[in-house]
């Protein structure tokens, strides 16, 4: 992909500038003055997500209430079909609930226009998926750098930051490799570097270790844990079947049939 093609993504974000955790809370995602209590990042109330399968409605989430504080490391567990991915999609602003409210920093996502939702997603949230979702024709460096294009980061700065992030995940020697020349664990580390490119407040990861051997999974978990150190820890929300992953979370939420059935601090 050429730089010109990358530039076409620019119109995605006209609502805000590149913002890191230190400046969030301004611009599009500014909380109303009345928002309380402090420290709550997500507030979900009576969430329902109804899908239509032919003529049959499917309630993937029902009457779900959940508060997530800034800086938490939260796992979402539960059997297949319990609603984990559906919940992550709502938290990430990739989908909207059919009933109920989701507030991120006091701002109700359901009432956002598509454009502000896109801005919130790209400024505040980093996504990591089981299948890595790297662009196969781009190198590791390009896969990370492309995430900064909507934020008008200059090319030289994109390359510098992508290089730094890839070095941070131990891939400084793999910058020019295409995904097909990387192992699964390496691809997921590129995906984590990409998720961090715009200094998100939240990392949303859906089965991030689902395709990895245990050693690579351990590396990936170590990287996520590193994000929790420092003054402004990144909030991490991970859906997983893997007890090893859930065991590293500091709070474990369990879903069954689209509702929270357990919520415990580890
Ligand atoms: N686009 C869709 N259309 C119809 N039904 C859907 C859709 N997406 C999810 N569902 C249904 O919603 C329910 C919850 O699905 P979801 O993918 O959130 O589960 P999950 O907990 O992530 O499962 P898994 O562990 O297998 O990934 C399931 O019954 C699923 O079949
Ligand atoms: Mg899922």
Architecture overview:
With 266 residues, the protein is an alpha/beta fold.
Q: Which CATH-level-2 architecture? A: 3-Layer(aba) Sandwich
General form: globular
Give the names of the bound compounds.
adenosine-5'-triphosphate, magnesium ion
Global structural class = alpha/beta
Helix content: 25-40%
Instruction: Output the radius of gyration.
Output: 18 Å
Number of helices: 8
Number of strands: 10
- How far apart are the termini? 44 Å
Mean pLDDT score, rounded? 86
Q: Under CATH, the topology is which?
A: Rossmann fold
| Strand-residue proportion | 25-35%
One letter per element, helices H and strands E, the order comes to HEEEHEEHEHHHEHEHEE
The biggest sheet amounts to: 6 strands, mixed
CATH class: Alpha Beta
